[in-house]
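Entry 12.
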Amino acid sequence: MTFCGETILPGERKKLPLPVPGSSPLEAVCLCGASPGRTLAVTAGVHGCEYVGVQALRTLEKALDPAALAGNVVLVPLVNPSGFYAGAKQVVPEDGVNLNRVFPGNPEGSLTFRLAFALEQALYPIADLLADLHGGDCNEALCPLVFFPVTGAQAVNRASLEAAKSLTVPYRIRSTAQNGLYSWAVQKGVPALLLERGGQGVWSEQEVAACCEDIYSLLRHLEILPGGNPPREQVEIVQAVYEEAAASGFWYPAVGVDRSVRMGVVLGYLEDMQGRVVQQVRAEFDGVVLYHTTALGVRAKDPLIAYGRP
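Predicted 3D structure (tokens):
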């Protein structure tokens, strides 16, 4: 196995730098299986306050045994280190840009664009499947779910969907995004998923264990680990609505995550400083709440709530 110009021998585990133009490198953990097979790349920490995936990869880098693998695994636990250490919501602190909105990157751009460029150059060429781990941010409550692509080549979409079906999350959601770490990978011909678990700036051992099980499921799906996966109970969301704040104000959600809602029901409302309701969010159809903002204060165009239907 070769990663960023470095050779990892069969049965070997090695921490290697992932070069970033004009900045400190990221740290990647490479595990080369004792026998050949496919390669799974997994990233976490694109957003600095989404902790479950970060801790899951820290756990897996110690738990996975290269000698037991038929193939390779590349883990990047902290894609946005400065955002993680600063507790920055959604952005890379150095330039205030959301890393999951700037792909493809630019080696001459600000740090966020250079990070995107570095990840694309290092991971896309070696990955048979890429999984990007996220969660609700420090101001979001979220039901575990996976986004899978519908805008890539047919074979890439199909491979991504089959991988999504192996996961333990209750919902899988069709995604048309194209400018994020996983979604741009799809445009470049790499099957990929975005897995969401946890939120509100906290993590638990139970959530980390569930996230680890999802990665084990992907490894079994790719036959990097033996055993296969049992049938999973998932609901596919074919239509989703992502409501944003019409203005800055005070947000009051009226329903919780993973709750069924009827068409026309009030999902939440936004007040101004004088207590006037400036926005009322109603369900456009019968569906289920996937996530919502828990913060009292929101800015114009901030996410408020997302819901969808099969």
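Annotation: The mean pLDDT is 97. Residues 205-221 form the longest helix (17 residues).
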